[in-house]
Amino acid sequence: MSESLQQGRNAREFLQRNGKKIAIAALGVLIAAQLFAAFYQILKYESVLRYGKPIVLDTTAYDPFDPLRGRYIRLNIANGEFQTSEKLCDRIRESTLFVTYKDELDDRNLSVIDNVYLTKPKTELAYLKVDGFCGYSRNAVEINYNFDRYYMQEDQAKAVDLNARLMSRESKASVIVRALDGKGVIEKVMIGSQTLEEYLRDQEQDGLQEQEEND
Fold first, then answer.
1. pLDDT of residue 124
2. What's the whole-model pTM score?
3. What is the SS3 assignment for 87?
4. What is the mean pLDDT of residues 5-24?
5. What is the pLDDT of residue 13?
């Protein structure tokens, strides 16, 4: 018997004897890799929340349901717009962009766009990596944010869904996003000067008090 045939036979016998162990080991490596990836994403998420700079954006919301992660409100964050030159618009059209924001807020307590870049900027300002495109007529960059889910307790999310005016433009709703190295993570939703959770608790307490007075 040739050496190559003998090696092939030995390999088959090894797989027959140890196939189950190899399969279990491979499954273990796969599970470990998935757990590591999940842990890395959580760590990255928490790092952005802890060390990221705040950006305040205008928003409304509606209330869907994620069967895997539970109830959340999907934020309808107002798309940003930034006037730019025709030359830059010709280069952008539709692209991944980096948007920097000024440290000062406007008269509505919302963040103001400082500039738009095609490459990662070297700056101390807060910035986000976003999807954007440039119109042909106005030389204005339209900015689409790539985060929109804010998870809540189910009863609170339902309260948002039932109170359509709660997240209307007139309610002065905003979202605070933490930004680090271009990644944005939603920290909290604000109704005026209160967090959404605080506002809902106050509404619930006012409703119970009114019910007691009527009784």
1. 92
2. 0.70
3. helix
4. 59
5. 59
Burial class (CB in 10 A: 0-12, 13-18, 19+), 174: buried
Most confident of 36-40, 93-97, 102-106: 102-106
Q: What is the pLDDT of residue 93?
A: 64
Location of structure tokens 């809540």? 152
Nearby residues of 128 by Cβ (< 8 Å), 6 or more positions away: 55, 98, 99, 101, 145, 177, 179, 182, 183, 184
d(C-alpha 98, C-alpha 118), whole Å: 6
The encoded tokens of residue 72 equal 């959340």
Lookup: tokens for 18: 């140890």
DSSP state for residue 16 in the 8-state scheme: H
Start-to-end CA distance of the chain, whole Å, equals 98
Q: How far apart are CA 169 and CA 152, in angstroms?
A: 21
All residues at 6 or more sequence positions from 81 whose CB lies less than 8 Å from its CB, including other chains:
140, 141, 142, 143
